[in-house]
Amino acid sequence: MARIKRFEDFACPSGQTVPKPTIMQVSGKSELAMLALEQLLISLAEPSPVQAQIITNALQGMGASQIETHGSGRELIEQARLRRPSLVISAYHLPDITGAELVQELRDSEDLYDIPFILISSETNPERLETIRQAGSLAILPKPFTHEEFEQAMQSVMSFLNCDSLGAEVDADMALMNVLIVDDSSTSRHHIRQVLEKLGFEHFCEAASSEAAIPYLEQEPFKLIVTDYHMPGMDGLDFARHVRSSGLQPDTPVLMVTSDSDNLSKNELEDAGIAACCQKPFDMDKMRELIRTLLNEY
Q: Which UniProt keywords apply (predicted)?
């Protein structure tokens, strides 16, 4: 088995060092991101005029020019249906709904489900932030945030919006590749699928539990398996062990996507047969490079 590839989330609690990526160094992108930001319509939900101005100044400093500020979540959603934004940024505590409820309503809608989302909040409750991660937030920033944290978050947005297919960089036809996504959160499954579609994958099977995924493994071959860690019943590690020990698809790489990778040791991952592990929210450039490497190595 190839050495485990792993990168960490760049959205850290205030005061902690932002981890550096271990599999890819993104260079020469910042200038492109600033130029592209001019084209984005950014919708901000922030009830504090002071905080709204701080975030607006940070966006303008990177080149953004189209910024709409809303004092409540409902106001943002109503306006988004009239004028669809390229990006939604929100605080967690809003006067009418929470940031978690806002992003969930976006994900559940038929017209706004795929809009990139960033949370900027002083909220530190793990359970509340987990809901944001599961909904596919591209970044979770603290208040106050550093320039470096904000720049990384916006780079992740631009990478997500401008992502190219991996088709020309892998040795097989991606249109023929099947991908299995295993996650008990339907919102998280949808976000993972959205990311993989941007990378060029076309064929997916989705399962809400490890137990539900096993019959798929018996029916057809997969080029990639993406699994969550925390799930009811058999967790992601046990599921990966089952994939390897059962001999169903021993050569298919298993990518674990979780918000809890700090608590997983390298030995645990290797023992379970995990090929790579990444943390929610993940950076698009890093995810792209990671999956490209997996497809070419397995």
A: Phosphoprotein
A 10 A CB-CB count for 31 gives 9
**pTM of the complete model beyond 0.90:** no
Query: Could you read off the pLDDT of 152-192 as tens digits, one per residue?
Result: 999 999 999 998 889 888 877 888 899 999 999 999 999 99
- Number of domains the chain is built from: 2
Task: Report CA torsion sign: 166, 167, 171, 177.
Answer: positive
Taking every pair of Cα atoms in the chain, the longest distance, rounded to a whole number of angstroms, is 58
Residue 128's domain is classified under what CATH number? 3.40.50.2300
Containing 127, the helix (H) or strand (E) segment is helix 126-134
Domain ranges, residue 179: 167-297
Q: What is the pLDDT of residues 1-43, one digit of tens each?
A: 445 555 443 333 333 333 332 222 333 344 443 347 899 999 9
Q: Is residue 192 within 8 Å of 226, Cβ to Cβ?
A: yes
